[in-house]
Write a structure and sequence with these properties.
With about 325 residues, this protein is of the alpha/beta class. Helix content is about 30%, strand content about 15%. It contains ten helices and twelve strands. The longest helix is centred in the N-terminal third of the chain and has 14 residues, at about 80-95. Bound molecules: S-adenosylmethionine (SAM) and iron/sulfur cluster.
């Protein structure tokens, strides 16, 4: 695709520089807010192979993307994932990519921590909603809490920077925030709390567990000294510094407070669909142009077409007693 020569500006003047790649929609967990227990996964025949994922990601880098996050489903259950990571590392070495990173549930980190630490990945996001093994099993269905903790320890020891993501869930982990803050603080991990988003049918009422983070913040402020942080990743998280731990606490509030004005990202699924907004159904296919035109011209056209269609924002809504997701696909398809 040639050298980095294009810039992607969407119709609302936002520069698109961040690509999230969901490398698989499959996962070894079934977190209750993310998936239903009887999920239908995408047919394997439709999934891009790792080389194709690399080609699409590289085309985006040529268009000005300088940050890539690999996600899923669970990215570390995709066979050969380290090959993709090693291959994409060349863009970090060339300077085209500022950051290559990963979001994981940590189930496989005990196996991959050292190799990840030796790769171009410097920091990872680990999703951990509870420190309580029983709550963990209830929430994830298949999750092995001890193995996850072992994986986080291994990644920490290997020198990877870790940020913990915790979805705030009424009646599930809302009695644990102080403990989680303390646990993260002891290890020097930043923490981000996330509101549940209405994505995909999960077979139960999401509203029952929805928590507004403004209320959570008030609760946390009773025990911790929070001051507005200067830290800003350009992403949806709004940060405060925690005086006692010297770590940061972020809040992602897609429902109670929109963050679309500064959105700089698009999302590629493992079948090659590009979603321009997490909270909208609009997408553009990258697989057909990739496969039908080895010159890369059609793919370039598809990328430019997609960016010209990026919507202004999402309109997530969770209403009491109504179990209709705002978008039909699950978070595991577009990867959060
Ligand atoms: N499996 C990996 C993990 O859990 O880190 C990566 C994919 S997961 C879909 C990415 C993030 O999305 C996780 O932090 C998860 O908690 C979050 N997530 C999934 N479904 C969500 C929902 N409906 N609302 C808010 N966050 C959600
Ligand atoms: Fe799997 Fe991550 Fe979804 Fe949990 S949140 S079911 S770990 S994809």
């Amino acid at each position: 695709m040639g050298s980095k020569s294009y810039k992607m500006i969407d119709p609302f003047g936002r520069k698109i520089s961040y690509l999230r790649v969901s490398v698989t929609d499959r996962c070894d967990f079934r977190c209750s807010y993310c998936m239903s227990e009887d999920m239908t996964f995408l047919p394997r025949s439709e999934i891009l192979d790792l080389e194709e994922l690399d080609q699409v990601a590289s085309a985006f880098i040529a268009h000005g993307v300088d940050k890539i996050r690999l996600t899923g489903g669970e990215p570390l259950v995709r066979r050969g994932i380290m090959n993709l990571i090693h291959s994409l590392s060349r863009h970090k070495k060339s300077g085209a990519l500022k950051e290559l990173t990963l979001t994981t549930n940590a189930s496989q980190l005990y196996r991959f921590a050292d190799e990840l630490a030796d790769s171009a990945i410097e920091r990872i996001n680990v999703s951990l909603d509870t420190l309580n093994p029983e709550t963990f099993t209830r929430l994830t269905k298949n999750g092995d809490h001890a193995q996850v903790m072992q994986g986080i320890d291994a990644a920490h020891k290997a020198g990877l920077k870790i940020k913990i993501n915790t979805v705030a869930l009424k009646g599930i982990n809302d009695n644990e925030f102080d403990e989680i803050i303390n646990w993260c603080g002891e290890r020097g991990f930043d923490l981000t709390l996330i509101e549940t988003m209405p994505m995909g049918d999960i077979g139960n009422l999401r509203f029952d567990h929805h928590l507004e983070l403004s209320a959570v913040r008030k609760q946390i402020e009773k025990n911790w000294t929070l001051t507005q942080s200067q830290y800003n990743t350009g992403g949806p998280s709004r940060y405060v510094d925690i005086g006692e731990t010297k770590t940061r606490l972020g809040f992602i509030t897609p429902l109670s407070e929109h963050f679309c004005d500064t959105c700089n990202r698009v999302r590629l699924t493992c079948t090659g669909m590009l979603y321009m907004c997490l909270g909208q159904d609009g997408s553009v296919d990258m697989r057909e142009p990739l496969r039908s035109d080895p010159s890369g011209k059609k793919l370039k056209q598809a990328i430019e077409d997609a960016i010209s269609k990026k919507p202004k924002g999402h309109d997530f809504e969770i209403k009491s007693g109504i179990n209709i997701p705002s978008v039909t696909r699950h978070m595991s398809v577009t990867g959060g």
